[in-house]
Amino acid sequence: MGLPIKRQQEDMFNGIMFFIPLSDFIVTKLEIIGNKLDLTYTDSLNSQIRVKIYYENKFLNSINSIDESIKRNYQLEYPPTYLNLMIYNNDNIVDKLVFDFDPRQSPEKGRITFVLTREYIESLIQSGENTTIEFKGLQNLNWTTAQKDDLTETFVSFANIDGGIIILGVSDDKKIIGFKQAISAAEIYKQLVDLVYNWCDPTIDFIVNEIDMHDGDRLVLIHVNKGNNPPYMKVAGRTGTYLRIN
């Protein structure tokens, strides 16, 4: 006997795709906390249901997958920046959720909850610098011209390729030294806007987050978006176009 037919609909909302399935089975909530994934779902047809999860972390350059009978808790190899979850009854897809990490999203959108954790940031730091992660041992906003020049080069190189995260308060050898200046994220953002406006052409989109680590050290995360109008160039200090390479 076939599954009862309901309705099917796909909708895009801030990078998250919702799928209303053709079955009585449905995932009502997917929660990602660091590298833990928790599912809440209806119990009907539970014994017949399998799950396939494809996930990746673009900052760690890692891709992985899970294919097994459905359960409520999964331990991923690393916190994902992209996740595609598909629910199967035999060979039929009965539900799916696609999560694409965007730090500009509010914590909860529909059926998906994503929590930015200290463990996630620690995993980025321990993986070291790469084409999408760079550390800056800056502890305040009193930047020298050379430090502005260096920071601008990173903005430009990230915007010219795939975007990336600049972490203020971490040294090149992955040591957390903290951002010490008692100043709000809004004030940090304002100074960065001034820097990007005066030193980059065209202007570069970014957002600023902050997080207190386990030892109390505060880190500032600058999420630089991939640019839609390359090439991006410096227009102050040394001139030139920069690309991020290993």
Provide structural commentary.
The structure is a single chain. With 246 residues, this protein is an alpha+beta fold. It folds into 2 domains: 9-115, Immunoglobulin-like (Sandwich); 129-241, Methyltransferase, Cobalt-precorrin-4 Transmethylase, Domain 2 (2-Layer Sandwich), CATH 3.30.950. It is built from 3 helices and 18 strands. It has helices spanning 118-127, 145-160, 185-199; strands at residues 9-13, 16-20, 27-33, 36-41, 49-57, 62-69, 73-75, 82-89, 92-100, 108-109, 112-115, 133-136, 164-168, 200-201, 206-212, 218-224, 233-234, 240-241. The strands form 4 sheets. It has a 6-stranded antiparallel beta sheet, with no helix packed on it. Strands 7-4-3-11-10 form a 5-stranded mixed beta sheet, with no helix packed on it. The protein is elongated. The chain starts with 8 loop residues before the first strand and ends in a 5-residue tail after the last strand. The model is unreliable at 1-22 and 238-245 (pLDDT under 50).
Mean pLDDT metric: 79
> Helical percent range?
10-25%
**Radius of gyration, rounded?**
21 Å
How far apart the termini lie comes to: 55 Å
Report the count of strand segments.
Answer: 18
Strand content: 35-45%
Q: What is the correct CATH architecture of the largest domain?
A: 2-Layer Sandwich
Tally of helical segments: 3
Any idea of the CATH topology of the largest domain?
Methyltransferase, Cobalt-precorrin-4 Transmethylase, Domain 2
Reading side by side through the largest sheet, how are the strands ordered? Answer: 1-2-9-8-5-6
Point out poorly predicted stretches: 1-22, 238-245
Count of domains: 2
- Based on helices, strands and strand pairing, what is the structural class? alpha+beta
Could you state the CATH homologous superfamily of the largest domain? Schlafen, AAA domain
Strand count, sense and closure of the main sheet? 6 strands, antiparallel
